[in-house]
UniProtKB/TrEMBL annotation:
Top-rank taxon: Bacteria
Pfam families (alphabetical): Lyase_aromatic (PF00221)
Entry-linked CDD domains: PAL-HAL
This protein's name: Aromatic amino acid ammonia-lyase
InterPro entries named in the record: Aromatic_Lyase (IPR001106), Fumarase/histidase_N (IPR024083), L-Aspartase-like (IPR008948)
Organism: Dethiosulfovibrio marinus
SUPFAM superfamilies: L-aspartase-like
């Protein structure tokens, strides 16, 4: 049962989480903690009890030989074929192996770890019928650092990615352990783990559900939320060095168009530029600013609204039962219901919307960073060049931002409007949610670079002023300068952008600003 606790949505605490005890609702930050930061996983008593209770129903159904999909019948188009008890382990094993058919370069390890963690949460809902043995192995692999190799192409929304993880559970497939790629059986042995034999329904459960959509979507959404809030910091820095006016941030303007995120964004910019000598000196310098500065509350606010909606969707999905069939307790012992909570439309559509919102943020960031290097509008040295003549200054990072934005625009085409016809038309509709989640995950990686270039430019621009920026933007400048020096002469640029992009992803830019302002609104 989904509890009210899910509504207490939070994020940004992932790095501080070292252990997750499964049994109650989980959050997006716990997914990131396990997937990206290596938090350990344990089972609570409640988790174990409900898994064992539900598994007892499956064992009884299997002995009674009722016609229940995936328990006593074949799978997919073979739903109408009875499978004898002695053959059910063979069917479950074959099901996992036959579905291990995604191809191409592997998904990032944090994506695979996120899927493994979401599997544990979904499979332990008390409605799937999994036994504890494969769940204990899955947790053991996470804690030991055994990561299945999951090729990254060929999913219609579920099935294939998950099967590659399942293959390692049975000692097949490939995995990475200790930095080396090896056979799944070797990786398990090297880490002190043993493969399992999948029993009735377990192979079906492994490849069913919304595991990949939810897990990869959660990672992409978490990064997008961080980027969206950091965009307020970057936008405020650009507004300041471009001698912008805070008139467009006036609370009265926001109050007559009372979108919450718009008002909160305007408030953030005012707080970020509080006590800025630059802003105070150039107040009224222009009647009004270009739209990329003047519309920060409107565009940033709209994007945050979409991302917040996506966070609620992912939070519900993380704590849902998404198998087929689902097992329920009844007065006379239990019932299996065939449906399709395994459909990935909720998270898929949320991810499609989120990448559009993220691209909007990146679009505005690219326009602001371009203004800082364009001396025709910036009133700053051309290309923020400290030593013109033989140097290009910061001319070319804007080219990179334009190229990155072009990639993001391509990713913004919705995936969930597509359809595929599979399983001899038994599955005549597919959500394509996995593609949507991957687009968001990839798009967030690109967006952080665009934002890093805006921050790079803003910090360089600050260095041309002999009057003080705001304490908050100076704190960001000083954090950046710990790793990225002022560009005095042309240099190898990529490492500078990578360093700031890492600060964006890890929340260090935001933390630097908030060390002055306190927590900013989202």
């Amino acid at each position: 049962m989904i509890t009210e606790e899910i509504k207490k949505i939070s994020w940004r605490q992932a790095p501080s989480i070292s252990k997750v005890v499964l049994g109650g609702p989980i959050s997006i930050e716990e997914v990131v903690a396990v997937a990206h930061h290596g938090a350990k996983v344990e089972f609570g008593e409640e988790y174990t009890e409900r898994v064992n209770r539900c598994r007892a129903h499956v064992d009884r159904f299997s002995k009674e030989e009722k016609a229940i999909y995936g328990i006593t019948t074949g799978l997919g188009e073979n739903w109408n074929r009875f499978i004898s008890q002695e053959d059910r382990e063979i069917v479950q094993r074959n099901h996992v192996l036959s579905h291990s058919c995604s191809v191409g370069e592997p998904l990032e390890e944090e994506c695979v770890r996120a899927m493994m963690f979401v599997m544990l949460q979904h499979f332990g809902s008390g409605h799937t019928g999994m036994s504890m043995a494969p769940l204990e192995l899955l947790a053991g692999m996470l804690n030991a650092g055994v990561v299945p190799v999951v090729p990254g192409h060929g999913s219609v929304g579920y099935i294939c990615y998950e099967a590659h993880i399942g293959s390692v559970l049975i000692g097949e497939g490939q995995a990475v352990y200790g930095g080396r790629r090896m056979k799944g059986s070797e990786a398990l042995k090297a880490s002190g783990l043993d493969p399992v034999v999948l029993s009735t329904k377990e192979g079906l459960t492994i490849v069913s559900g919304t595991t990949s959509v939810t897990a990869i979507g959660a990672l992409g959404l978490y990064d997008s939320l961080m980027i969206a809030q950091t965009a307020d910091v970057a936008g405020a820095m650009s507004l300041e060095v471009l001698k912008g006016t805070l008139m467009a941030m006036d609370p009265r303007i926001q109050e007559v168009r009372p979108h919450r995120h718009q008002g909160d964004t305007a408030s953030n910019v005012r707080r970020l530029l509080e006590d800025s000598e630059i802003e105070r000196t150039y107040r009224g310098h222009r009647v009004q600013d270009a739209l990329s500065l003047r519309c920060i509350p409107q565009l940033h606010g709209a994007a945050k609204k979409i991302l917040t909606d996506g966070l609620e969707t992912v939070s519900v999905e993380l704590n849902s039962s998404v198998d087929n069939p689902l097992i329920f307790d009844t007065e006379d012992g239990g019932e299996a219901l065939m449906g399709c909570n395994a459909d990935g439309s909720y998270v898929g559509m949320a991810c499609d919307c989120a990448i559009i919102a993220l691209t909007g943020l990146a679009k505005m960031s690219e326009r602001r960073l371009d203004r800082t290097v364009n001396h025709h509008v910036s009133e700053l040295p051309a290309f923020l060049n400290a030593n013109p003549g033989f140097n290009n200054g910061l001319m070319i990072p804007q080219y990179a931002a334009a190229g990155l934005l072009g990639e993001m625009k391509t990713l913004s085409h919705p995936s969930t409007v597509d359809n595929g016809f599979t399983c001899a038309n038994q599955e005549d509709y597919t959500s394509m949610g996995a593609n949507a989640a991957i687009k968001l995950y990839r798009g967030a990686s690109l967006a952080k670079y665009i934002l890093s270039i805006e921050i790079l430019n803003a910090c360089q621009a600050q260095d041309f002023y002999d009057i003080a920026p705001s304490p908050a933007t100076k704190a960001v400048h000083d954090r950046v300068r710990q790793e990225v020096p002022k560009v005095e002469q042309d240099t190898f640029m990529s490492p500078l952008m990578e360093a700031i992009a890492r600060m964006v992803k890890d929340g260090e830019i935001l933390s630097a600003a908030e060390s002055v302002t306190g927590p900013l609104e989202f």
